[in-house]
């Protein structure tokens, strides 16, 4: 798992994003979802795998409704430090726009097979323990870019049927539209307003 593509795309003298480092021996199980108002609004879904955050861009955002299969496009690995990044990427820089920590927590694999092996095989099943996302999910690869299994692949993120599933899920609901770290909206982050009490 490499960070070379991540670093190649960014000028860390200009962007506040962390340069980070590969943590080969780190065995944590963090996940984070960042709402990203860039050229197109989307959600970045990240799972800690092999000392980095394996990442997917989800145009419509994750869903707690098992009937809603969400397209998830694999992007470059991000450093673990990115899990707490919230702020504004300046104009002219890769991914320019506002980033919110929309959800964050821990996860665990559903099977004995390691997440690294599941990722390589194109199907990951895991349980999330976040503020907004809970229970079982699956990421399933549906198309791979030839010769580039680490980037540019199309996957589906699907909520599994369990006690946390919600057919009435609406990601646009106001209570869901705030940072789990600071309680701020995208607009408040863009304006540089101070932290709020988390009221989720």
**Rg computed from alpha carbons, rounded to a whole number of angstroms:** 16 Å
**Poorly predicted ranges:** 147-151
How many separate domains make up the residues?
1
Question: Could you estimate the helical fraction of the residues in percent?
Answer: under 10%
List the helices and strands and how they pair.
Elements lengths: L3 H5 L21 E8 L3 E9 L2 E7 L11 E9 L8 E3 L7 E13 L5 H7 L1 E8 L3 E10 L10 E6 L26 H5 L10
Antiparallel strand pairs: 1-2, 1-6, 2-3, 3-4, 4-9, 5-6, 6-7, 7-8, 8-9
Describe this structure in words.
It contains 3 helices and 9 strands, in the order H-E-E-E-E-E-E-H-E-E-E-H. By secondary structure, the chain is mainly beta. It has one domain. An 8-stranded antiparallel β-barrel has the order 1-2-3-4-9-8-7-6. About 2% of the residues have low confidence.
């Amino acid at each position: 798992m490499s960070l070379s593509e991540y670093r190649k795309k960014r000028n860390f003298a200009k962007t506040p994003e962390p340069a980070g480092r590969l943590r080969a021996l780190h065995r944590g199980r963090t996940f984070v979802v960042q709402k990203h108002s860039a050229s197109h609004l989307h959600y970045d879904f990240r799972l800690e795998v092999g000392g980095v955050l394996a990442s997917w861009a989800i145009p419509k955002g994750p869903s707690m409704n098992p009937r809603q299969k969400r397209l998830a496009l694999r992007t470059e690995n991000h450093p673990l430090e990115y899990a707490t990044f919230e702020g504004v990427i300046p104009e002219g820089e890769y991914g320019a726009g506002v980033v919110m920590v929309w959800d964050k927590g821990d996860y665990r694999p559903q099977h004995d097979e390691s997440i690294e092996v599941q990722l390589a095989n194109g199907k990951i099943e895991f349980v999330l323990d976040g503020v907004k996302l809970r229970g079982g999910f699956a990421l399933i690869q549906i198309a791979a870019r030839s010769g580039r299994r680490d980037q540019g692949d199309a996957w589906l993120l699907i909520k599994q049927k369990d006690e946390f599933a919600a057919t009435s899920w609406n990601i646009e609901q106001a209570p869901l539209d705030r940072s789990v770290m600071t309680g701020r909206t995208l607009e408040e982050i863009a304006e540089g307003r101070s932290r709020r009490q988390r009221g989720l």
